[in-house]
Amino acid sequence: MADRISTYWMFTQPVNNMTRLQSQMNVTQQQLSTGLRILTPADDPVGAARVLQLDQDIALTEQYERNIILLDARLSEEESTLDAVQESLDNIRELAVQAGNAAVLTDEDRLAIAQEVEERVNELYDLMNSKDGAGEYLFAGFSGGTQPFQRNEAGGYSYEGDEGVRYLQVSSTITLPSSDSGKDIFMDIPAAETSFTSYANPLNEGNPIGRISAGLTVDQEALDAFYPHDVVITFENPRDIDPAEPNYTVRRKSDGRVLDNLQNIPYVTGDEINVAGMSVRLTGEPAPGDQFVVETSSKQGILTTAEKFLYTLESYPPGTGFDDVYDANIEATLSNIDNAMENISQVRARIGARQNVTEAVTDQHADSKLAAQDIRSKIRDVDWVEAVSRLQMESLTLQAAQQSFAQTSQLSLFDFIR
To answer: Checking CA distances to 199, which of 43, 179, 251, 276 falls within 20 to 30 Å?
Structure first.
């Protein structure tokens, strides 16, 4: 018995075949136009999953590369700034050496040295408040928007930043500091010998405001014996003495004990106060209740070192009966500058080590990203030769199917009867 082929099947089957061939051809054309073999996850579920993972790996590597660029830029800015700081310190050191030649130093020489030191102090102050390319202060810690070093109206300098250190991740296992605290670099420098800093209580109300000098050490042994105690100078009620006039009392901060019988001492602006081997000068018109603090320390900041050098030049010049004090403070200035230079050199060495790490990691990232991109390309990207050949074959097959269908669709029963 002969098979019967329905007219419906005779038309539907070729149309379905041509539709399938056209769909395959469209996919191939899309692959060629996009350059991608995997157009949807359904094309290759395993390959698509692997490509997704590689995309994530490459994106993470590129983020690390951006972090390295930011890190290198910030480290370069810090390095160049510290280089300038060291150059400025070296200039101050040369001036201190000149000042140490007291036998040939004239008053004009001493004043010229003092003027240049003041210029260098201003230079240091600006450098220590340097900003990075993003407009944030380099040495403020986490407080990038806060000027770290402030020149106090009542005398001296203060650090208003924090001790935070920022970090950037440069690989899956390496995180590097992108900054260094200004306190660590410029403030916490080991002093040659026990030293001190002086400052006014920010709540003081004197008008004109009372000021306290950086001061200097006049008796190192006495200061060593007094350390680690601090001094508080308090302005008392003028009526505490007769006749009534401004007066102050000098106390030990820890227990309030009056030091060296310095109680209700009449105040005259510009007076030197000598206590526990330390000498400071008060100026202005402090109000009753105003306080000034003298803190002993085993550390001394760069700006304090420069200020004490200036104070030595201006207040205890050679030939005035204080040659020993002058010589000792010049020697301390040289030693403290050397300590500051060494501290900065150590910071710069750490910066250099970080830059070496980023250079090595950058090379690793370039290699790993290239390998990942190569693997991704082999999985995801189209094989151009194979795809073009396939498109030609699909085109020929579709044309043959269309021609065959065109001929078959025109046949009728009468064609067979003839």
So the answer is: 179
